[in-house]
Amino acid sequence: MAENKSIKDINALRVAVIGIGYVGLPVAVEFGKKQPTIGFDANPNRVAELSKGNDETLEVSSEELSEATQLTFSCDVDSLQDADVYIVTVPTPIDDFKRPDLTYLERASETVGRTLKPGNIVVYESTVFPGATEDHCVPVLERVSGLTYNRDFFVGYSPERINPGDKQHRLPDIMKVTSGSTPDIADMVDALYASIVRAGTFKASSIRVAEAAKVIENTQRDVNIALINELAILFSKMGINTEEVLNAAGTKWNFLPFRPGLVGGHCIGVDPYYLTHKAQELNHHPEMILAGRRINDSMGSYAGAKVLDAMMRNGLPINGARVLMLGLTFKENCPDLRNTRVVDVIAHLRERRVDVDVHDPWVSPDEARHEYGLELTPEPKPEEYDAAIIAVAHDQFREMGPHRIRDYLKPNGVLADLKWVFGAEETDVRL
User: Quick check: helix, strand or coil at residue 233?
Assistant: First the structure.
């Protein structure tokens, strides 16, 4: 029984990480450096790629993979038979109606349930609303395994804090929140993560507290960015430079340095809907959270409209115009396309019969085609475009500088900078 295991036995536990994407792979690598670890994924191509020492997400280098000498990869459920601890790190997206989609979480729980044994611990890292682990995942584990929760097996929750593309804030350097379904299991889960996270751990009083802590981390950021986005819209109408206002306000010690922009990705643009879903189940209307979401979800159309306005001011035609979109990922210096809101800008322009070419050196052409039906432009040609839009602050675009990017433009072409990569005096449009 896991309840009776000593904290001293932590390094002897066999770990299985379910889902080895942006979140799961760094977790598997850290545990694989010190104890037997299985990285399980339903995608055989992902397993084959990692088994060869390559990570297409670029989160983990080949050198780091080689350091995880006790880590193996598999897509065979039978490989999980010997696991003591299962760590579930699968995506938790939203559907077309902005409702939580727990499909991946439920399937992962079914997979774990097939090999779950008495004494095992299942730790969830996926972002969910408070109560999801015990109300949605545990019943699946019980149904498939035939075991009883908190008698035969136990559960923990330790929210992921992986920041894709960030090479400074890595898993071992970010404090980890932990929790467990009993006091002893909470201690074990905390000790397990403490063994790989040098920044330390914070043991929450319950699984629901840990779930709530995670979902409000990104909800808070979303609301703050929405405020700045709304202020940017207001200041634009007033003819005031938003950056100058923020720089002036930022001289106060407690002013938060948020900037306007598109809000996408798998966290900030998604997590608030998990919290609002739960709130509405309880007959509470979360006004501020939903208002923030509405503002941020509208910024793609707002950005597209600003570019078109600038083109018209320069005497450029809109119907049949050519625009170069620089960047497609949801954030800089990573290949992650999940929930990128750059597609909203593209859609706004195309709806007005503008031809849009997309160039992003970080993105796989196959993935762009599969996820959004977009064909990438590998090498844009000079003097081809009526406008160029810096949608993602990749280092490659920053290093090019505004003058080289303007080489892509026709005379009177518009350079739009949605990410404040360059100074206001160097561009024609900013958020």
Answer: helix
With H, G, I as helix, E, B as strand and everything else as coil, classify residue 333. Answer: coil
Sheet (strand 355-359) strand order: 355-359, 322-326, 385-390, 409-417, 429-430
Q: Which candidate, 161, 94, 158, 108, places its Cα nearest to that of 137?
A: 108
Which of 75, 137, 267, 334 is an active site residue?
267
* Cβ-based neighbour number of residue 349 at 10 Å: 25
pLDDT 10s digits, 383-422: 999 999 999 999 999 999 999 999 999 999 999 999 999 9
Active site residue 267: yes
Tell me how far apart the alpha carbons of residues 304 and 409 are, in angstroms, rounded to a whole number: 17
Tell me how long the chain is. Answer: 431
Task: Give the tokens for residue 25.
Answer: 């792979």
Which pLDDT value is given to residue 43?
95
Map tokens 């922009």 to a residue. 261
Helical H runs in 135-241? 138-145, 183-194, 207-238
- Written in H, E and C, the secondary structure of 129-148 is CCCHHHHHHHHHHHHHHCCC
* Amino acid symbol at 231: L
Report the predicted TM-score, pTM, of the whole model to 2 decimal places. Answer: 0.92
322-335 pLDDT tens trace: 999 999 999 999 99
Specify whether the CB–CB gap between 271 and 94 falls below 8 A: no
Report in angstroms the alpha-carbon separations of 59 from 115, 116, 320, 422.
29, 29, 39, 27
